[in-house]
Amino acid sequence: MKKTKKLRILALSTIATSFLALQTAEAATYTVQKGDTLSKIAQNHQVTIQDIKSWNNLMNDTIYVAQKLEISKQSTNETVKPSNPSTTKPTTPSKPTNVSYTVVKGDTLSKIAKQYNVTQKEIKDWNGLTADTIFIGQVLKLTSVATIPDGETIHNGGTSGAGTPSVNSNDPSANGQAIYKKTIEVANTLVGTPYLYGGNTPEGLDCSGFIYYAFNQGGLKIGRDSSEGYFYGKTTQVKNPVAGDLVFFENTYKAGISHMGIYLGNNKFIHAGSNGVEISDVTYSYWSTKLVAYKRFDAVK
Among 5, 97, 115, 174, which is 20 to 30 Å from 272 by CA? Predict the structure, then answer.
């Protein structure tokens, strides 16, 4: 009888241990709920806010409902003791030799660097990048000796037909920069303006109406169009976006090109979203997966 009781206790203990292990594994990822903050999540999971930001490549404390966060440090390799530690040395993945990479939706410098066993700084140095901003279709050197054929800097971009689209590699002229400066000043005064479908005045704005109003007030006379119309219209994709350039997104409220804003630099852009005119970050998972291209009005010289 005592033996049977001991076996039952042992079996229950094993089940409980397995259940706790399963809970721990599942808890490695947390889905943000309404009312959550980084502070609250960190406290509940006994980690620091900085840990969560580091594990998820967050630039600031902003999170949103349904966002999935890593809330524990995941080890990618099991530690195995060598049979003879004095003669066996740990191995690390070898770096690529002559590799280039085309940026796709959802990519970040951190993600690419980890995938190819290089550092973000190395990628920036090899490609002459001064910021962490990358964009879909951009081709990056992943070694110091990698080469990119002429005409292959951008593979996608804003043309409905085949072939490589034209890409502007120059910064705007002094006149263009003056227009951009004024346009951004106007755009910033519109923060908080409510969203209004078809709106193009400070009474209410949609995304393309915001562009129309801000640029016209900034000194560039453009016609009223949709975000798709501006994308396929008189605009050219830019290699290195500057503050004032356009940023386009797809598959937001409809399939295809469906949203746009004005790039502010440092991964930020200002736009008329469903909550009104606001400033957002292109590296946030929602926007980074829908980013299409940075472009510039042809009239901005």
Answer: 174
Q: Smallest Cα–Cα separation from 46: which of 65, 27, 60?
A: 27
Angle at the Cα of 92 from the Cα atoms of 86 and 98, rounded to 5 degrees? 140
Catalytic residue selected from 271, 290, 295, 296: 271
Residue 47 neighbours by CB under 8 Å, 6+ apart? 71, 72
Query: Which of 22, 55, 70 marks a domain boundary?
Result: 70
CATH of the domain at 230: 3.90.1720.10
Residue 89, domain member (yes or no): no
Which among 259, 290, 295, 296 is annotated as catalytic?
A: 259
Structurally, the chain folds into a number of domains equal to: 3
Q: Which residues fall within 8 angstroms of residue 116, CB to CB, at 6 or more apart?
A: 95, 96, 99, 101, 142
Task: Write out pLDDT tens, residues 62-81.
Answer: 777 777 788 876 533 433 34
Specify the pTM: 0.50
pLDDT digits (tens, 9 = 90+) for 193-246: 999 999 999 999 999 999 999 999 999 999 999 999 999 889 999 988 999 999
The CATH number that applies at residue 12 is 3.10.350.10
Expressed as residue numbers, the domain containing 8 is: 2-70
CB 199 within 8 A of CB 160: no
Does residue 287 carry a catalytic annotation?
no
Which residue of the set 136, 142, 207, 292 is catalytic? 207
Residue 175 located in a structural domain: yes
- DSSP annotation of 114 reads H
Asked if 155 is an active-site residue, the reply is no
- Which of 29, 54, 70 terminates a domain? The answer is 70
CA 284 to mean position of chain CA atoms: 5
Residues making up the chain, counted from first to last:
301
Cα–Cα distance, 35 to 32 (Å, whole number): 9
Any domain includes 101: yes
